[in-house]
Amino acid sequence: MKERFEIALNTPAGQITSAVDVPIGFVPVSAIVPLMRRLGEEAQALEVMRSLDSGRSTSCHKGCAACCRMLVPLSAPEALTLRDWVRSRPEAEQEDIARRFSESKTRLLEQGVWQQLVSLCDASLEPDEAVVETVNRNYYALRLPCPFLDAEMCTIYDERPAACRELLVTSPPEQCADLTKNPIDPIPVPIQVSTVLGLVWQDLTKDRTRLIPLPLALEWAERHEEQSRRTWKGGELFDQALDKTWRFLSQALGGNDKSPAR
Question: 234 and 1 in contact (C-beta within 8 Å)?
Answer without folding.
Answer: no
